[in-house]
Amino acid sequence: MVKPAWQAEESVSVKYGSEQAQPEETEYFALLMEGKKVGYAIQNRAVAGNKVTTSVELKITLSRIGVSVSVQTKASTTETIDGKPLGFELEQALGMMVTKTTGTVDEQGKVKVKTGQQQEEFDWPSGAVMSEGMRLLLLKHGLTEGTTYTVKLFDPSMMQVVDVEVKVGLKQNVDLLGRVVALTEVQSNVSSAQIGALVSTEYYDDNLRLQKSITPVMGMTVEQVACTKEFALGENDVLEVVDKMFMASPEPLGDVGSVRSITYYLSPVTDEVDLKIPSNDNQKVQRLSDGTIILTVEPVAAPTGVRFPYKGNDPAALKALEPTRYVESDQQVIIDLARRAVGDTGDAAEAARRIEAFVADYVTDKSLSVGYASAAEVAVSRQGDCSEHAVLTAGLCRAVGIPAQVVTGVAYVPRWRTVQDGFGGHAWVQVYLGDKWAGLDAAFKSAGLGGYDAGHIALAVGNGNPEDFLNLVNTMGQFKIDKVTLNKR
Questions:
Q1: On the chain, which terminus has fewer CB atoms closer than 10 Å, C or N?
Q2: What's the distance, Cα to Cα, between the start and end of the chain in Å?
Q3: Does residue 1 register a pLDDT over 50?
Q4: Residue 270's domain spans which residues?
Q5: Coil, strand or helix at 390
Q6: Is residue 28 domain-shared with residue 157, that is, in the same domain?
């Protein structure tokens, strides 16, 4: 007989608190956004000898202007039964292909990571734990109200450590899809330089099993709720998210490409928000005592006469020449396209402009159905939206020796689909020319919007990996634009 949707799936083993834990246990969760079921999570913990393997599989399906987009990830960690890290695997089905990353941790604490043809090696972060280590700390500290502790958690999807501050709260009645259960609230404050701060509220039963979590994302509420396998894997609702990726402009701005600079007055939506907007060569930040930010965006003019490939020693520029998981600038398909795009010019600024124009024309299918594709995938499919334009632009630039970073933020559009006079979540590129970073925007150029301009507000820069967009996701919905001043040329 099929159990009701609200009834939690029985684990295939005994509970965590038992001294006679069985080798394997699996739990199912429904994922909800704004109260609508959009996907599922499957968590599995398996013990074999001295090893514990913990896996989390996620699948989310959303709608973008009526176009269905699905993303699926599976992350697994392997540790000893006392929480020592041994390795991890990550599979991400975000684009047209499945990307797989594997990592091993040797006895000397060296981490060796491989993604496709890309390999890297680094030292295991001191004191960091993964899934089993985190579970053991939860068992150690328990659920006594007022308990607090901090954890350095290594996240394979981000390939870095995040700081987690844990605070145990009250036991209270919690709704689990219609079933009300007494659970203990635990607040986890996750922070890193890359994603900023993200607060998640979790609810555990007396056996320290997670039953529900609530996380704010882009001004929305994302919930994970324990349920039956049948309900978790069952039919999803349709949630349109494009409107969530836009914020209103206080007034129509017209042709922002014709202005010298724009000054924005930004304010956090609540007093609790610590709004962080970076300063760089193209934008300057002034923070006022009341939390308001005065941001002036003035695009750098690309200097002529700079040769490439880059021969300097700026650390950020050198980093921005390296191939990465999603900017595979060392793959032949990328190298060949870069040579086609650049042609016979030896000037770095002209080469960058040619690459921008090439990508704008080369991506012929401006599809919203791609979750997230790498530069090499886009080179083959010629399909995607702003993020695909950005990673391909960065890949071609790096392939010819022009340092390039992928920028995430918001950009002004006078009209896009159903949106008018709004700032939407966006991705573009900045390249290092001379001693300045100058912006490129192949997606805007393709749409007839000119390219990079003062209507772009950068929130973070990176290598085009999906996790780089966490800062954008975390910041969207956290601030509003109160006033805009256009400064003419």
A1: N
A2: 72
A3: no
A4: 248-488
A5: helix
A6: yes
